[in-house]
C-alpha cells in the first residue's frame, strides 16, 4: 500500500461558494504531486461536480460536508463525506472501476469516471462517502 505523504481536511457549511476552497486545495495538492495541466483540470472538475452534488443532498439544518484531499506516492484521493437522511441510508453501495465506459462529466459516479481513474461511493451508518482517485503517472526523465 502506498504511503500517505500529504493531507488537507475541510469542513464546509452548505454553501456552494465554498467549493472555491476545495478547488484551491485540490490544485495545490495536484501541483505538488506533479500532475500535468490536463490531469489537474480533470481532477478539479470532478471534485467540483462531486461537491455540487453533495451540497444538493445536504438538506438538514446545520449539515456539513467534509472534504479530505490526500496525496499518496502513487495517487491523489478526494474524499467527500456527509450525513444523510434516513431515506438515503439504504442506498446501494458501489465502487466503479475505470473500466466502466466514461460518460460526459457530471455529478453521477459514472460521469466522474471520464475525469478520474476510480470512483468509490457508499453509504454506511448514515454517512455517505465518495472517493475520487487520480493516479500519479511517473514522469519520464528528460535527457
Class of secondary structure makeup: alpha+beta
Helical proportion, percent range: 25-40%
Rg, Cα atoms, Å: 15 Å
Query: Stretches where pLDDT falls below 50 for ≥5 residues?
Result: 88-109
Total beta strand runs: 6
Strand content: 25-35%
Break the fold down into its secondary structure elements and pairings.
Layout: E1 4-13, H1 19-33, H2 37-57, E2 64-72, E3 75-83, H3 86-89, E4 94-96, H4 109-112, E5 118-124, E6 127-135
Antiparallel strand pairs: 1-2, 2-3, 3-6, 4-5, 5-6
List keywords for this structure.
six-stranded antiparallel beta sheet, 4 helices, alpha+beta, 143 residues, 31% helix
What can you see in these coordinates?
With 143 residues, the protein is an alpha+beta fold. The protein has four helices and six strands. The chain has helices spanning 19-33, 37-57, 86-89, 109-112; strands at 4-13, 64-72, 75-83, 94-96, 118-124, 127-135. Strands 1-2-3-6-5-4 form a six-stranded antiparallel sheet. Strand 2 (64-72) and strand 3 form a beta hairpin. The radius of gyration is 15 Å and the shape is globular. The model is unreliable at 88-109 (pLDDT under 50).
Amino acid at each position: 500500500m502506498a504511503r500517505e505523504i500529504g493531507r488537507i481536511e475541510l469542513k464546509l457549511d452548505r454553501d456552494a461558494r465554498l467549493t472555491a476552497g476545495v478547488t484551491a486545495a485540490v490544485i495545490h495538492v495536484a501541483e505538488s504531486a506533479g500532475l500535468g495541466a490536463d490531469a489537474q483540470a480533470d481532477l478539479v472538475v470532478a471534485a467540483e461536480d462531486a461537491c455540487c452534488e453533495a451540497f444538493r443532498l445536504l438538506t438538514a439544518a446545520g449539515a456539513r460536508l467534509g472534504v479530505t484531499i490526500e496525496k499518496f506516492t502513487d495517487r491523489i484521493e478526494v474524499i467527500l463525506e456527509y450525513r444523510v437522511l434516513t431515506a438515503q441510508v439504504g442506498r446501494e453501495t458501489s465502487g466503479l472501476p475505470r473500466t466502466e465506459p466514461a460518460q460526459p462529466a457530471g455529478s453521477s459516479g459514472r460521469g466522474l469516471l471520464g475525469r478520474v481513474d476510480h470512483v468509490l461511493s457508499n453509504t454506511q451508518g448514515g454517512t455517505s462517502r465518495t472517493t475520487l482517485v487520480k493516479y500519479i503517472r511517473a514522469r519520464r526523465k528528460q535527457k
